[in-house]
Design a protein that fits this description.
eight-stranded parallel barrel; 30 strands
Length: 628
């Protein structure tokens, strides 16, 4: 039996979720009224129920995100919400807080959010044995690590392949709380990582005056799909529950086409839902929101991944500015541009800047607001007016389920049988006196022509058989009516016959991989504490939000490294790094200051508040070099 592989798309709301399904998503993930890690992407239960109905028509799944940490006074409310979600047909929940595993739940499938420390085989296997059916892997993993996890357990593995990257290990960023009591783990990330910072060395010297030093490029692993499948991943996730419609449709369509080309005639894998999508545009990921792209660490640490110029959308590379001409620009590849496009560039002060194309006269791009730029400035398009207009149209991506129709006679009339690509059938008939057509020309071609008109239904006719014993006259209105009836029935049959996987969590007591949990395990309530204690954990620190010590806390742990970005990594860039930096390095934004600590052995960077007392070890000793 072939293994199913899915494209999993974000649904900010019902409209965008339906658009993602139409664009080829095999599943969508959507926020509930509460407890999702994007507080600006909540949805009513009524809309989620509609989302479930629409997705299930195509045998696509709906996952609801309940991935905030919970406080004690929220546990009953969360449990009630889970029962409501189960009752409206949701396929699975994506959770971070282990309190949910302690609850008396309905038999609903649970997925472990990427915030649940899904970074090694031991933790992932533990979650599988505790009853999780799927684990969303940490974004920082490379192919070898993914493969190692897959070999250790048969849990389903989900991996982000497109969209914005959290610079921190997911669930381990506390900058928002430390800067204003907005918790990322409670759905209110303030995106401190996208702010401009000064970089100051241990002598007080400013190395970099004003740059977005914690902002990183967006993820694009579209070329890695076959490698990730081979490593054990079966769900490819697109980030973006706060993104716009064009982004969702464009990214989903692009990945759908990529995956379909891999799955075509594949003996081992198949797509995870039904139907096929017809596109009226050519998807290109760099034509919707992006900060430039990186494959992050999937191929281990190689390229630089920072997006220091700007945290905003960079978009599609157009070309160099060749000349200023009157009140306009002569730009390489200007023919790619259209009136209304947004342009992005870094101005002469080193600041991210932009303008909008007003008109293109001959070879001169005339902007709405002229800005004096240096010849050689690289120009990007970060808003593509024609593309956006095209993708926003409802018919830009249309999904249809294949159906075969068989039109035959009955004793007193005629009958239409519809069989869809999954084997579902509906049948309808009508009484009609059988009279021969007045002319000898066959009626069958005209009947087939009208049976093929599926219009706005979710079906496309792949095959029509008409079996008559005579050249019977039939009113076309009757043919159209029976076609409508049989296809409407088929919609209801598909939704009714949808099979939702169910799983009843039972409490386990197998040992947790570690016995002591620090604040980064985000334990914020009595039920999560009970869960870990039952699994052998002896010491449990409270979540950061419950015990923050202002000015002295570690606010981020990340695989991203400022030293590496500067070419000053003693592990990978020793031969070219030149003089060592004088530590501690400090990031400063306004009144906020952070010290950077580099743990070279695990290849991680920590960010601490300014009053923290840190011990800075010799990096050569950390990574196994003798001190010279």
């Amino acid at each position: 039996m072939k293994k199913k592989v899915e494209i999993l798309a974000p649904a900010k709301n019902l409209f965008q979720g339906m658009a993602a399904i139409n664009a080829g998503a095999d599943a969508v993930y959507i926020g509930a009224p509460q407890f999702g890690a994007r507080s600006n992407a909540t949805n009513t239960l009524e809309d989620i129920a509609e989302m479930v109905k629409y997705a299930h028509l195509f045998k696509a799944q709906v996952f609801v995100v309940l991935n905030t940490i919970l406080y004690d006074n929220e546990l009953d409310l969360c449990k009630k919400l889970i029962y409501q979600l189960y009752n409206i047909g949701v396929d699975a929940l994506i959770i971070q807080d282990m309190a949910i595993m302690e609850m008396d739940l309905p038999p609903i499938v649970i997925h472990a959010s990427t915030q649940a420390n899904n970074r090694d085989a031991k933790h992932v296997k533990f979650l599988k044995d505790a009853g999780m059916k799927r684990v969303v892997l940490a974004r920082e993993l490379n192919l070898d690590q993914v493969r190692e996890i897959s070999e250790a357990t048969d849990v389903e593995l989900e991996f982000f392949v497109s969209g914005a990257l959290c610079v921190s290990f997911s669930g381990n960023c506390y900058m928002s709380v430390a800067n204003g009591e907005r918790s990322a783990n409670r759905g209110s990330c303030a995106q401190n990582c996208r702010l401009p910072y000064q970089l100051i060395d241990g002598t007080g010297k400013t190395l970099i005056a004003n740059s977005h030093l914690l902002s990183i490029k967006d993820l694009d692993l579209s070329d890695q799909l076959p490698n990730l499948i081979e490593a054990g991943v079966t769900s490819f996730k697109i980030e973006g529950r706060l993104k716009d419609l064009v982004y969702v449709k464009n990214n989903t369509s692009y990945l759908r086409k990529k995956l379909d080309s891999f799955l075509e005639n594949n003996e081992n894998y198949t797509k995870a839902s039904s139907g096929r999508t017809f596109y009226n545009f050519e998807p290109e990921m760099d034509r919707s929101f992006n900060r430039g792209y990186t494959d992050y660490f999937v191929s281990k640490r190689k390229e630089k991944i920072g997006s220091w110029d700007s945290p905003k959308s960079q978009g599609q590379l157009i070309g160099k500015l060749l000349e200023i001409k009157a009140n306009g620009y002569i730009i390489e590849n200007y023919e790619k541009l259209n009136n209304g496009d947004g342009l992005f560039f870094v101005n002469e002060n080193g600041e991210p800047d932009g303008t909008q194309v007003n008109i293109i006269v001959n070879d001169v791009v005339v902007p709405n607001t002229f800005k004096n730029l240096a010849v050689g400035t690289i120009i990007y398009r970060n808003s593509d007016a024609e593309f956006n207009k095209m993708v926003e149209k409802e018919n830009s991506a249309v999904r249809k389920i294949g159906v075969s129709l068989k039109f035959t006679e009955t004793e007193n009339g005629f009958q239409l049988l519809a069989t869809d690509e999954d084997g579902h059938q509906s049948i309808s008939s009508f009484l009609n006196t059988k009279e021969f057509a007045k002319n000898e020309e066959s009626v069958i071609p005209n009947i087939k022509k009208n049976l093929a008109k599926t219009g706005n239904t979710p079906f496309i006719v792949d095959n029509i058989d008409v079996e008559f014993t005579g050249n019977w006259f039939l009113p076309i209105s009757k043919v159209n009516e029976i076609r409508r009836d049989v296809l409407e029935q088929l919609v209801e049959i598909r939704i009714k016959d949808y099979h939702r996987e169910e799983f009843q969590i039972t409490k386990t007591d197998h040992p947790y991989p570690v016995q002591k949990l620090d604040f980064m395990y985000n334990v914020s309530n009595k039920m999560a504490r009970a869960f870990y204690q039952r699994h052998g954990v002896t010491e449990i620190e409270k979540a950061f939000e419950l015990q923050w010590d202002p000015g002295k806390a570690r606010v981020m742990t990340t695989k991203y490294c400022v030293k590496y970005e500067l070419g000053k990594c003693a592990r990978f860039q020793r031969e070219t790094m030149g003089e060592k930096l004088v530590e501690p390095l400090t990031l400063k934004h306004g009144e906020n200051e952070y010290k950077l600590k580099f743990n070279c052995k695990p290849c991680e960077m920590e960010i601490w508040e300014k009053d923290a007392e840190l011990i800075f070890e010799d990096e050569d000793e950390q990574i196994g070099y003798s001190v010279r």
